[in-house]
């Protein structure tokens, strides 16, 4: 279910903070959670590049970091 436009950021902030906390604590990610985390953070990072908030980001290191947390990796 999507958030109402007047509170979408308020409702999402806690969830995003929880996701960042899990990454900072290096919690393991299932395959589905890995894919969702990868997609979500790539969208945020691409937005930041497109809006010239950041110049670039290290896509390889980003993939390595998430890959280290993925359970059942080959």
- Count of helical stretches: 3
Shape: globular
Low-confidence stretches: none
- Report the span from N to C terminus: 34 Å
SS-derived structural category:
mainly alpha
Main sheet properties:
none
What does this structure look like?
By secondary structure, the chain is mainly α. The chain has a domain at 28-74. 65% of the residues lie in helices and 0% in strands. The chain is built from three helices and no strands. The chain has helices at 8-24, 31-50, 59-69. The protein starts with 7 loop residues before the first helix and ends in a 5-residue tail after the last helix. The relative contact order is 0.15. The mean pLDDT is 92.
Short structural description:
This protein is mainly α.
Characteristic key phrases:
74 residues; single chain; mainly alpha; 3 helices
């Amino acid at each position: 279910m999507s958030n109402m436009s007047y509170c979408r950021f308020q409702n999402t902030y806690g969830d995003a903070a929880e996701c960042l906390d899990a990454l900072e604590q290096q919690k393991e990610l299932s395959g589905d959670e890995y894919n969702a985390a990868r997609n979500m953070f790539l969208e945020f990072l691409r937005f930041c590049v497109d809006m010239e908030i950041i110049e670039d980001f290290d896509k390889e290191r980003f993939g390595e970091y998430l890959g280290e947390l993925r359970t059942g990796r080959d």
